Structures are given as C-alpha cells and as structure tokens.
Predict the 3D structure of the following.
Amino acid sequence: MDNNNSLTWSDFTKVEMRIGTIISAELFKEVKNPAYKMQVDFGDYGIKKTSAQITKLYQPEDLIGKQVVAVVNFPKKQIANMMSECLVLGGLGDDNEVTLLTAERAVKNGTKVA
C-alpha cells in the first residue's frame, strides 16, 4: 500500500455513508456509458438523485426496494442533464461489473455506516 494514499482517522470520519432504499430506477438515456438514474430515500436525510453504471447485473425493476450504501456528503455533480446528489457504492468486478453494497437486513433509511 502506498503511504501517500493513506487516510487519517479524521479523514475517514468525514466520509458520511448512509443506507437508503432505492425508490425509482430507470435507464439514463442521456449518458455516454450505460447507467441508471435512481432516487434513493435516506429517511430524515431526504430523497437523493444519483446515477449508477450497474446495468450489467441489475434491471431497473429489480432495484426498487433494495437498500444500498451511499456516500451522501459529496458536493453535487452534474451528470448529463441530472445533478447527482450521492454516490452509491459497489464492488468492481473483473469485467467492470458493479455489485452493489447492500444491507444484510432491513434497517431504517438514513442509518449511518460505521
């Protein structure tokens, strides 16, 4: 591991990861790489929009109701014609397919990941 990329504990605690439920998902037609536009409900933290390049392993209808882990304190980012408000996390496979990080059991939307 390269020590230049090491985080301090203080750095890590600034990353706010929360669990939310995907409430809508549809093909994001306006982007260059295949992706879905999604809305994720984080309870008291609100509903946030995002896009995710997860089309290799997931269909939009299978995403609805799935609880996912996301970073919710990045600055908003313009992606095509949408302002992304969070970053849904996943594991990157050998063929660049993304497997979403999910909660093992149902938890309250907005639950902090620690």
About this structure: The longest strand covers residues 17-27. The beta strands are 17-27, 36-41, 47-52, 67-71, 77-79, 82-84, 87-88, 90-92, 98-100.
